[in-house]
Design brief:
- By secondary structure, this protein is mainly α.
- The protein has a single domain, classed as Up-down Bundle (Growth Hormone, Chain: A).
- It is 74% helix and 0% strand.
- It has 18 helices and no strands.
- The longest helix has 33 residues, at 146-178.
- The chain is globular, with a radius of gyration of 21 Å.
Length: 418
């Protein structure tokens, strides 16, 4: 007999309001959040240790780029493959190996005898992490529907944002206490997460009715639709702006204009997490009232205002206000874009379609700093922020002139309490 589940949550069989419900083996938010945090560990926790790593191996500052990119590049190509495998063989069968590879390669990096070995271990980590954040989003889509799904995308985004603010500080403390090799110790937690996933999670939906070639063609058909291509483009632009302006240009701007120390710059860089957390947490209530399209355009509208303020503010308090405002838009737009993509994917191809967003994000993470660095060299930090506002404004204008894809908006009456 099927047990009734909460509204909007999947189970085997049919529950209230036509929602499917699932009993034992359901993905819980704490488990999904743990997978998400593990997925962003690859670079966030190691940033403060980069100078120590380069000094230890006798490398110059130019090697920092390859050290960071080595853990990100594999995801551009590997994420779609992991999504296809998850659709074909089940979420758990793919998620557990990803966690194990990530954890083991992290431990190997801690004991790397040469810089080359360290890069190889980091590259292996990139293979493991390529599917983690994607599969966390897939688990949310498998487990919740409608307004609940939008809400839990927001909650998971809040976890990600807070982690982005906290993990660099953790890496700095570990480096100061025990040296840079200790910053790789937390990666071993991925092995514990793999054990929990094995015990607590079922395999999830699978579909082997198609050949691998047929599965790829089916996913490609969905991916070519405007409802998927446009959100993927938005995710790419968003991460070009985040990694280009916020993480590359802002530290330079704070040092050049306000002469802030590394610690002070770190505190300013953490301020967007305040707005992002708030935006992500209110997203469920907001989605009950307005469309995904309105939230996306409103968020990019916030960027149009925040970027010039970041670049031209005469006082630090205005920089902080601009950072919090930027974070508010970021916290709303990222889970909303994910919800639009998820709503466009069939159950049998959800892993593959959502994985394309990971590829778009990784591409934005790689391209953003390169474009921002070139812009700073040509026009300076303040004008680079102005260029970012132009890009965000172009997205808003395009969204007003060309109707962006939207995700279905559940009626407020169906929203569960809280």
């Amino acid at each position: 007999m099927n047990r009734p589940g909460p509204p909007g949550r999947h189970v085997r069989g049919r529950g209230p309001r036509g929602a499917r419900v699932r009993g034992r083996g359901v993905a819980s938010l704490p488990l999904i959040a743990t997978i998400t945090v593990t997925g962003i560990l690859a670079n966030t926790i190691v940033y403060p240790a980069i100078p120590d790593i380069l000094a230890d191996f006798g490398r110059d500052d130019g090697a920092a780029g390859i050290l960071v990119a080595s853990a990100a590049i594999p995801g551009i190509a590997v994420a779609p493959l992991i999504g296809l495998l998850a659709d074909r063989f089940g979420r758990r069968r793919v998620l557990v190996p990803c966690l194990v590879v990530f954890g083991l390669c992290g431990l190997l990096a801690a004991f790397a005898p040469t810089f080359g070995w360290l890069l190889a271990a980091r590259f292996g980590q990139g293979f493991g992490s390529a599917g983690l954040i994607n599969l966390a989003n897939v688990l949310i889509s498998d487990t919740w529907t409608g307004l609940q799904r939008a809400r839990y995308f927001g909650y998971n985004s809040a976890v990600l944002t807070v982690s982005l603010a906290i993990l660099p500080a953790v890496g700095g403390v570990l480096t100061d206490l025990g040296g840079w090799r200790w910053t790789f110790a937390p990666y071993s937690l991925a092995l514990l997460t793999a054990v929990v996933v094995t015990i607590r999670l079922d395999h999830g939906p699978t579909d082997r009715s198609l050949t691998v070639g047929g599965q790829i063609r089916a996913a490609a058909t969905v991916a070519r639709s405007v409802r998927v291509l446009v959100p993927l483009g938005l995710a790419f632009v968003m991460f070009v702006l985040v990694f280009g302006l916020l993480l590359t240009v802002l530290p330079l701007h704070l040092e050049q204009v306000f002469a802030l120390s590394a610690t002070e710059r770190g505190l300013i860089l953490a301020t967007p997490a305040i707005g992002a957390t708030f935006g992500a947490l209110i997203l469920g209530r907001l989605r009950a009232r307005v469309s995904a399209r309105a939230i996306i355009l409103g968020s990019f509208g916030i960027f149009v205002l925040a970027y010039p303020l970041l670049g031209w503010a005469p006082t630090l308090i205005l920089v902080v206000i601009a950072g919090v405002a930027f974070g508010l838009g970021e916290g709303m737009v990222l889970p909303t874009v994910t919800d639009v993509v998820a709503s466009s994917a069939p159950d049998s191809g959800r892993g593959a379609v959502l994985s394309l967003q990971v590829s778009a994000v990784r591409l934005g993470q790689s391209v953003g700093p390169l474009l921002a660095g070139a812009a700073v060299a040509m026009v300076g930090t303040s004008s680079t922020f102005a260029l970012g506002a132009v890009v965000a404004g172009a997205v808003v204008v395009a969204g007003l002139l060309i109707r962006l894809p939207d995700a279905p908006r559940p009626a407020p009456a169906n929203a569960p309490a809280g």
